[in-house]
Amino acid sequence: DSGVTQTPKHLITATGQRVTLRCSPRSGDLSVYWYQQSLDQGLQFLIQYYNGEERAKGNILERFSAQQFPDLHSELNLSSLELGDSALYFCASSEDTGNNQPQHFGDGTRLSIL
Amino acid sequence: AQKITQTQPGMFVQEKEAVTLDCTYDTSDPSYGLFWYKQPSSGEMIFLIYQGSYDQQNATEGRYSLNFQKARKSANLVISASQLGDSAMYFCAMRGAFSGGYNKLIFGAGTRLAVHP
């Protein structure tokens, strides 16, 4: 158990819809990261928050947004969903942003767009 | 730009044997971290081992060791005494000090390991 909690585990929805994925980091971790894993793109970094502030952006679409709340949990919002958004979405957390800090991953949310 | 290359899409190993999973990387950062993660068929990502670019000794964690050759830019994972539960996808990843900040992990494409009894 990594200590990172993601909900829901599975999500099935239709094109054009909007969903929210939720992440609770490990106790004491200030940094939260979101990744997308798909068959064609592999594991791609989306966005990172540190103690409530956005720190880095990766290949995140404009239809996607995220935030980190004062209690440090984070939400990833995906809107106007397309078939290609079907993927496994991971949240990870680490104590800070040092390059020797391992990121601990949650079990992921598997999103299926019908 | 940083890049991770895992050239072995799939590997087989007999139970109790050792296996090496290859990883090469490319970066211009002087300071970076290298990580290995395991992804079983159930989907979760499990952190295995870390190696810092300035570390003099190869990292070890139980049955996992990292064969770090800085001049060759390689960071191979060695699993000793393979067990059936080691069957999974293995990802090599890197974090750099400057490009992209101390933030994102860059992953390789992964190697699927199958352990046979």
Mean pLDDT across the residues of chain B is 92
Supply Rg of chain A.
13 Å
What can be said about the biggest beta sheet of chain B?
A: 6 strands, mixed
Give the SSE order of chain B as H and E letters: EEEEEEEEEEEE
How far is the first residue's CA from the last residue's CA of chain A?
31 Å
How far from one another are the termini of chain B?
Answer: 41 Å
- Strand percent estimate of chain A: over 45%
Largest β-sheet summary of chain A: 7 strands, mixed
Shape of chain A: globular
Low-confidence stretches of chain B: none
User: How many E strands of chain B?
Assistant: 12
Helix content of chain B: under 10%
Continuous helix count of chain B: 0
Mean pLDDT across the residues of chain A is: 94
Explain what this protein looks like in three dimensions.
The complex is a heterodimer of chains A (114) and B (117). By secondary structure, chain A is an all-beta fold. Helix content of chain A is 0%, strand content 53%. Chain A is built from no helices and 11 strands. Chain A has strands at 5-7, 10-13, 19-24, 31-38, 42-50, 53-57, 64-68, 74-78, 87-94, 104-105, 109-113. In chain A, strands 2, 4, 5, 6, 9, 10 and 11 form a 7-stranded mixed sheet that branches. In chain A, strands 1-3-8-7 form a 4-stranded antiparallel sheet, with no helix packed on it. In chain A, a hairpin with a 3-residue loop joins strand 4 and strand 5. Chain A is globular, with a radius of gyration of 13 Å. The relative contact order of chain A is 0.33. The mean pLDDT of chain A is 94. Chain B is mostly beta strands. Chain B contains no helices and 12 strands. Chain B has strands at residues 3-5, 10-14, 19-21, 24-26, 32-39, 46-52, 60-61, 64-69, 74-79, 88-96, 106-107, 111-116. In chain B, strands 2, 5, 6, 10, 11 and 12 form a 6-stranded mixed sheet that branches. Chain B has a 4-stranded antiparallel sheet with strand order 3-9-8-7, with no helix packed on it. In chain B, strand 5 and strand 6 (46-52) form a beta hairpin. The N and C termini of chain B lie far apart (41 Å). Classes of the chains: A mainly beta (114), B mainly beta (117). The A-B interface holds A 2, 33, 35, 42-43, 45, 48, 55-56, 58, 88, 90, 92, 96-108, 110 and B 31-33, 35, 37, 42-47, 50, 52, 91, 95-97, 100-107, 109-110.
